[in-house]
Write a structure and sequence with these properties.
Layout: H1 9-15, E1 22-23, E2 44-47, E3 49-50, E4 53-54, E5 66-69, H2 72-75, E6 78-80, E7 100-109, E8 111-113, E9 116-119, H3 121-128, E10 135-141, E11 159-160, H4 164-170, E12 175-178, H5 193-199, E13 210-213, E14 224-232, E15 239-248
Parallel strand pairs: 7-10, 9-11, 10-12, 12-13
Antiparallel strand pairs: 1-15, 2-5, 3-4, 6-13, 6-15, 7-14, 8-9, 14-15
Helix pairs in contact: 4-5
Length: 250
C-alpha cells in the first residue's frame, strides 16, 4: 500500500463501511477454551443460589443470575492504562474518554532472536511507513486461529522489541493494539521497557495513552486505514476487558 499522510477523521468517517464491521477482540467462553497468559485462572461463571432461589432457567429458575470471575490481564482481550505500572490509585481505565480512533492495521512477521520470538522495531517501522494514525493495530505473523485459545503461560511467547513503545510515543500513537499476551517479554525482571516507554512513565506520563493486548485480527482484515471503535468495562482498575471493532475505509 502506498504510504500517505494521515487522513482527517472526517475523511475516514465518510469512507467507513459500517456494514462491514470487523471484531478484533476475543470472546470469553466460560464453558470452553480461552487464551491464557501469566498463569491466570480460567474465567468462571457460577450460578447464584440463595435458599430456594436458583439463578438458572435450565435448573428451573425464573431468570439466569450468575457471578463471573476473571483476570483481565490473562484471560483475553483487555486494555490497560498507565495505572498498570503506577502507584497512583486514581490511574484507572475509567479515565478513558476517547472511543473512536483513526487507526492503521499492519502485518509484521515475528523474528527469532536466540530463545525469543519478537516483532522488531525495524520491521514495524517499515510496515507503518509514513502513515500517522492515532491507533496502531499490529497483526503478528504467523496468524493462526490458535491465538483464540492458546495457553501462553511459561512459554516465553512472542513480544515486541524494546524501544518500540518509546518510538510509538514519539510519533504520536495513543492506542497500541497487539495480538500478543504482552508488548514486553513474559519474564524481564520487571523492566517492562515498552510499557514504560509508551506511557513515558514516570517522567512525562501520557495519561491518555492505552495498550490493548490479546486482540485477534482475522485473516479477512487487510492492511490499511480503519475507523476503530473501542469500548471497555467502566472499572476503576488498571485494566479491563475490552471490545474493538474495525470499520474499513477502502
Amino acid at each position: 500500500m502506498k504510504n500517505t499522510i494521515a487522513p482527517t477523521f472526517s475523511e475516514l468517517l465518510a469512507k467507513a463501511r459500517f456494514d462491514q464491521a470487523i471484531d478484533i477482540s476475543i470472546p470469553l467462553d466460560f464453558e470452553g477454551l480461552n487464551p491464557n497468559a501469566y498463569y491466570a485462572d480460567a474465567p468462571k461463571e457460577e450460578v447464584i443460589r440463595m435458599g430456594s432461589f436458583v439463578g438458572s432457567v435450565i435448573e428451573g429458575g425464573a431468570v439466569n443470575y450468575t457471578k463471573v470471575s476473571l483476570t483481565p490481564h490473562g484471560n483475553g482481550t483487555h486494555t490497560e492504562c498507565y495505572g498498570h505500572i503506577s502507584k497512583n490509585p486514581d490511574a484507572t481505565i475509567d479515565m478513558a474518554n476517547k472511543f473512536l480512533f483513526k487507526a492503521f492495521l499492519v502485518e509484521v512477521e515475528t523474528q527469532k532472536q536466540g530463545d525469543d520470538q519478537l516483532i522488531t522495531l525495524a520491521d514495524l517501522q517499515v510496515a507503518l511507513g509514513d502513515n500517522k494514525p492515532e491507533a496502531l493495530i499490529v497483526k503478528s505473523l504467523p496468524n493462526g486461529n490458535d491465538k483464540l485459545t492458546k495457553a501462553y503461560s511459561g512459554l516465553n511467547p512472542p513480544y515486541t522489541e524494546a524501544g518500540i513503545g518509546a518510538w510509538l510515543a514519539e510519533i504520536g500513537i495513543i492506542h497500541w493494539v497487539v495480538d500478543l499476551p504482552s508488548v514486553d517479554r513474559e519474564e524481564d525482571g520487571g523492566l517492562l521497557a515498552n510499557h514504560h516507554g509508551f506511557w513515558r512513565y514516570p517522567d512525562a506520563t501520557r495519561v491518555d495513552a492505552l495498550i490493548t493486548e490479546l486482540a485477534f485480527v482475522p485473516e479477512g482484515a487487510k492492511v490499511g486505514w480503519y475507523v476503530l471503535q473501542w469500548s471497555v468495562c467502566r472499572w476503576k482498575t488498571d485494566a479491563a476487558p475490552s471490545r474493538l471493532i474495525l470499520y474499513p475505509t477502502f
